[in-house]
Amino acid sequence: MKVIFFDLEMNQHDEIIMIGAVKYDKKTKMLDTYRKCIRRKNETSKEICELLKIDNVEFKRTAVWFEHVVNSLMKFGFFKHPLVCFGNDGEILNKELEKFGRKCESVCDASVLMQFKHMNNEKQKSLAEMLKNRGFRVDENCLHNPVYDSSLLFEYWRDFLTEE
Question: 3-162: which CATH number, 3.40.50.720, 3.40.50.1170, 3.30.420.10, 3.30.830.10?
Fold first, then answer.
């Protein structure tokens, strides 16, 4: 069985501007990665570009419209394999996909289970914060790269499933 862990990055207008994913097989072996920059009508702010560590000129050059992303998501397996995200990324992605008549059926929000098990009723803000509190090494320079964040989610998920 293959499972896809994914992460979205948004702009200041709450539009998806990046999607990253990592596909694993049942033996927790990484099979493939996915990353797309998504072109939007609204300009992405300088602050968001700095947070995501992207060059706005390069971003504009490589970004594609979401309608073109749908086919690449299909080829990667988003509509075939179970998906795991953190927070409401699954809802956000499906809302966007519905505009093109598509939907990811099998999406798990890992934060619900993780918060229930590990947070001791504390409201933490991010996956990175949860990981740090559990003793994971988090590279601050790579945060907000959706492929890196997807890999972190997998590491946490694997730890979560194997913990007694």
Answer: 3.30.420.10
The answer to whether 150 and 22 are in contact (CB under 8 A) is yes
Dihedral of CA atoms 145, 146, 147, 153 in degrees, nearest 10, equals 110
CA distance 78 to 32: 12
DSSP code string of 14-64: S-EEEEEEEEE-TT--EEEEEEEEB--SSPPPHHHHHHHT--HHHHHHH-B
Q: For every one of its 164 residues, what pLDDT tens digit does the chain have, with 9 covering 90 and above?
A: 899 999 999 998 899 999 999 999 877 788 999 999 999 888 888 888 888 888 888 888 889 999 999 999 999 999 999 999 998 999 999 999 999 999 999 999 988 777 666 555 455 567 888 788 878 899 989 989 999 999 999 988 887 777 76
Residues in the chain: 164
Can you give the residue ranges of every domain in the chain? 3-162
- The two three-digit tokens of residue 151, written as one number: 């890999």
